[in-house]
Design brief:
about 20% helix
Length: about 220
């Protein structure tokens, strides 16, 4: 999946880039939903720390760790009650005392608190999910960096329901891999403070609201 983000396959012109732009979901809402879902990294850090303590550093851990997170809900004060706010189950592969970068999991109506244009918004993730941490990490290490998340089920941000999509993101940056309806080729759209950047196979296009997209 990282390869898909690094090497989009579409070749756009001034007309088809506008077409691709109109097909994109609201990227502000997408950013709110995926960044809230970064809650999964709490489970990665907790699982690594627990496994490291149990091993005492004297043995090499191989195999997998199963983690079940109770989701905090969307209120100011988190309520870790799975019956009210759902849960997120993860399977982490471990090799030579390192957590493997690829993580599979399932969200069961996991409710989270997101921020949409600096205002709180309810986020709910349900169904199969997968994550790429970008690199393997040691059991004693804390994860940081760019997270790639694939939602095979649904992610709901406020009243917007989206399914079967992915994003690669940090707190400052979000990239969305879009598959074009015209020919199934791909572009990567990046939300920025002054507009949207769309990257195709060869070019980066800058699209400002109400204006035509131009190459950069």
């Amino acid at each position: 999946m990282q390869h898909d983000y690094d090497f989009p396959t579409a070749s756009l012109d001034v007309d088809t880039v506008q077409e691709a732009l109109t097909e994109l979901p609201p990227l502000d809402a997408l950013a709110a939903g995926f960044r809230a879902s970064g809650y999964v990294t709490t489970g990665v850090d907790d699982a690594g720390g627990t496994a490291s303590k149990k091993s005492g550093g004297a043995i090499t851990i191989q195999g997998s760790l199963r983690v079940n997170l109770r989701c905090p809900g969307d209120l100011d004060d988190p309520t870790y009650d799975a019956s009210a706010n759902g849960s997120l189950s993860l399977t982490l592969g471990v090799e030579d005392n390192r957590i493997k970068r690829g993580i599979g999991g399932t969200a069961d109506h996991c409710v989270l608190r997101g921020l949409l244009l600096d205002l709180p918004v309810r986020v709910e993730v349900d169904g199969p999910v997968a994550f790429d941490l970008g690199r393997d990490i040691g059991l004693r290490a804390r994860w940081s960096g760019t997270l790639l998340m694939v939602v095979r089920g649904t992610i709901t941000v406020g009243d917007l329901v989206l399914d079967n999509l992915s994003a690669r993101y940090t707190e400052e940056r979000l990239e969305y891999l879009h598959v074009r309806s015209r020919d199934q080729s791909t572009v990567v759209a990046e939300l920025s403070g002054d507009g949207i950047r769309i990257r195709d196979q060869n070019l980066v296009w800058f699209c400002r609201s109400g204006e035509s997209c131009v190459t950069q």
